[in-house]
Amino acid sequence: MTNKYHLDYFEKAVLSNQYRILQLLAPLFNKKSGGIYEANKYKNYIEILDSNLVELFPEIFEGNFELPHDIQRDVLAITELYELMEISYGYLSLDEQREIDGDKIVFNGFGSEDKYYTEIRDFLTALNNSEVFEDRPGVSVVTEDMLEFPPVGPMMPLYKQQLGRLEALKARPGYVGSMLTMEELKYLTEGFEDAPPLQ
Fold first, then answer.
1. Which InterPro entries match (predicted)?
2. Which distant-in-sequence residues (6+ apart) come within 8 Å of 7 by Cβ?
3. 15-18 long-range contacts, CB within 8 A, separation 24+
4. With 0-12 CB in 10 A as exposed, 13-18 as middle and 19+ as buried, what is 28?
5. How far apart are CA 178 and CA 68, in angstroms?
6. Tens digits of pLDDT across the chain (199 residues)
7. Contact present, 189 and 104 (Cβ < 8 Å)
8. Among 29, 59, 65, CA closest to 44
9. What is the 3-state secondary structure (H, E, C) of the chain?
């Protein structure tokens, strides 16, 4: 990356201040995704400017790849689903818990073979590290271990099927939503022995 951009002290200060404002406003402008990815991007820009990392200026001015918004929404929906599954599993009786494979309740993150893996990992890292989003549904299942040790193979196809099953559950009469029954948890975790191939 070759830097052809030169900023004086005043220009860096003004630009850094503008990114601070955008970082705060990102959650308001992107209510569906929560603005997590955008807020983290602006935070990185602020660090580049404040630390005078001139070799990284092109990242600010020439732009970098952004995780598509539909993928951001999917990732957030997946983390929310796993948080709901973990909480619901904890409320089951011990006999009911024995009926379910507890390992399938734990969110393992995304594999390096998943499309947009690097961008998703950065997105989840921003989610995990941000104080702004610490109370957002789904954040509790994002852990340092999960980010550091990704699973082998693609995970998005499996997660997408689970989201499809969740939508089917929501359409059923009597679905509560705030808590899953043992049968609902089994429906969301069984029959996925192998992740389907990537499309």
1. UPF0304_YfbU, YfbU_alpha-helical_sf
2. 15, 49, 57
3. 15/45, 15/49, 15/60, 16/45, 16/46, 16/49, 16/50
4. exposed
5. 28
6. 456 778 888 888 888 888 888 888 777 666 555 667 777 888 888 888 888 887 777 777 766 566 787 888 899 999 999 999 999 999 999 999 999 999 999 999 999 899 988 888 888 887 777 666 677 788 899 988 888 888 888 999 999 999 999 999 999 888 888 899 999 999 999 886 544 333 3
7. yes
8. 59
9. CCCCCCCCHHHHHHHHHHHHHHHHHHHHHCCCCCCHHHHHHHHHHHHHHHCCCHHHHHHHHCCCCCCCHHHHHHHHHHHHHHHHHHHHHHCCCHHHHHCCCHHHHCCCCCCCCCCCHHHHHHHHHHHHHCCCCCCCCCHHHCCHHHHHCCCCCCCHHHHHHHHHHHHHHHCCCCCCCCCCCHHHHHHHHCCCCCCCCCC
Question: What is the dihedral sign for C-alpha 101, 103, 106, 111?
Answer: negative
Residue 34 tokens read as: 């929560």
Can you tell me the distance from the alpha carbon of 48 to that of 42, in angstroms, rounded to the nearest whole number? Answer: 10
pTM, whole model, 2 decimals?
Answer: 0.69
| Architecture of the domain delimited by 69-189 | Orthogonal Bundle (1.10)
Distance (Å, whole) CA 154 – CA 111: 5
